[in-house]
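Usage

Read records sequentially. Each one opens with the input sequence:
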Amino acid sequence: MTTATAVAADYKKNPFTLVYGGAITKNEPGKVNIQPVSYTLNGLKIAANVYTPANYNPQEKYPAIVVAHPNGGVKEQVAGLYAQHLAEQGYITITADAAYQGGSGGEPRSVDKPAFRIEDIHSMADFITRYPGVDTARLGLFGICGGGGYSLAAAKTDKRFKSVATLSMFNSGRVRRNGYADSQLGTIQKRLQQASDARAQEVAGGEILYAGDANLTDAQIAALPFDLYRQGYEYYWKTHAHPGSTFKYTMSSLMDLMRWDATDQIELIDKPLLMIAGSKADSLYMSEDAFAKATGTADKELFKIDGATHIKTYWVPKYVNAAMGKLTPFFARTLEASRS
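and closes with the structure output:
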């Protein structure tokens, strides 16, 4: 990886519409390859990418890692970046667009319900454990941002995952309920009423209402109160934009999101746990909270990347290298140990 600053990545110039630095542009023998795949989940077509290691031989056995993308993200962005880097370490990896989002099916678009996102993770495991060459006894889980919160939830009960790691974990339920940094505690009931009204309008055949999407000017973005949102707009709308990626979600989804929390019953996780977050991320409080509550495993670590904000862990080479510097030995140890 180079130390170049972020530049706009044109999805149209990559045959797999990947937008991250160093992305695969063609499949070549002896190198990490990418295979677009699809499968059905609850009647919906799910779009996914499988990355295979260099010199992949389907007759051999490889450990595998499921990678869950951020809220609003798609498989071609940061999830693909880390899936590719993990494949470089010898893993078969899969990252899929959530149902109702990105290249996957489902109407209305941009439904974002925790139960669906968790089932997305289970179904990625379903698919990849039947992929040629995958050793089902060596399956790991890695979730980024909102995908990190949903990965914690999936790992509570899905014991196929022998270890779980998160990057810049985002507890979607807590934020949708309490506001970012718990800044909207006074309006919870009002927002629940808005979500309820939106659902009533949907079932009556009316317009689908959305939250979280705004066409902001550069000045408005600069005035946002949190680094995550300022840098998030830059990442998702400019430097790593993809047509399948959007901040918006159906307003009615808040009925589900606001009663959910990534840390509920987190003590059910009894497998090795690695949580990675930037030391300067204003989302760090969510990883710290979840880590403290994850009392079901003694094999756990919270690693802070010095100087990194939330979004910068997605693309800045030195921070990506720092994250990989923890993920590589963590999965090597925990998935190799699972072989027996």
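Summary fields computed downstream for this record:
- The chain has one domain: 11-337.
- Residues 25 and 113 are 33 Å apart (CA to CA).
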